[in-house]
């Protein structure tokens, strides 16, 4: 049908028929066990806001899966086990999949505080730059996308096969610190496995980093709808309200404006340049 119902094809006053928006069927993984950093609740809230603001009817369906890492999720997306996931971006991931280039955490994933053994925070009192930091060994997981960033900036790494193992390594003195983002560290510090650990109070590592929604390369309609919905949520204030609701307290506790910022270089990716998409802490007095 090319024209609205009841109109004559010969009627010059008739208006072109506009089909209703396509219903979006969005599937995403719901692992049975995840690290308790609360990513899922926040990101799913944003996803629902984006879909509600996209102008499309939608169905949002979780796909139950055992726990897995982000590298495996790349494969699951390509295998069509689901059609969307939120992942920490890197060059390989952006070539393989379709990124929706709007940083879901406003870049807070790249503001890293140091989890240290209680009493060891004094070791970092005179740490002001990368040269000083290079004397300390950081703990990271295997295949974490920020490992190359840290290595390129001269930071020694000790890798672990598991997230839980890094807490044990820190407690045993096998690493000097465990760099965790502002949105992770406070929840993790309160866990039983972090007993005897504390957050170093004076420094913060910073580099550009972003979690994006990713779809398959052959899903342009879904990606476009979510992107437009996210920008609509920014424009009407829903995005910022959600961000502050979930992470305002963590930002306040982190006191980024009072810390010495140790900036790490990153030039492997092109990130969005609009300042409103990125969190910017107050200047240190």
Task: Tell me the layout of helices and strands.
Elements: E1 24-31, H1 39-52, E2 58-65, H2 70-78, E3 85-88, H3 91-96, E4 98-100, E5 111-117, H4 130-133, E6 138-141, H5 147-152, E7 157-160, H6 163-171, E8 178-181, H7 182-189, E9 197-199, E10 203-206, E11 211-215, H8 220-235, H9 238-254, E12 260-263
Parallel strand pairs: 1-2, 6-7, 10-12
Antiparallel strand pairs: 3-11, 4-11, 5-8, 5-9, 5-10
Helix pairs in contact: 1-8, 1-9
CATH top level assignment of the largest domain = Alpha Beta
> Helix and strand string, N-terminal first?
EHEHEHEEHEHEHEHEEEHHE
Q: What is the strand tally?
A: 12
The largest sheet is: 5 strands, mixed
Q: How many helical elements?
A: 9
What is the residue-averaged pLDDT?
A: 90
CATH architecture of the largest domain: 3-Layer(aba) Sandwich
Shape annotation:
globular
- Secondary-structure-based class equals alpha/beta
Q: Work out the count of structural domains.
A: 2
**For the record, what is the CATH homologous superfamily label of the largest domain?**
Periplasmic binding protein-like II
Based on CA atoms alone, the radius of gyration comes out at 22 Å
- The amount of helix comes to 25-40%
CATH topology of the largest domain: D-Maltodextrin-Binding Protein, domain 2
Residues in β-strands, percent: 15-25%
Region (Disordered): 1-20
Protein name: Ggdef
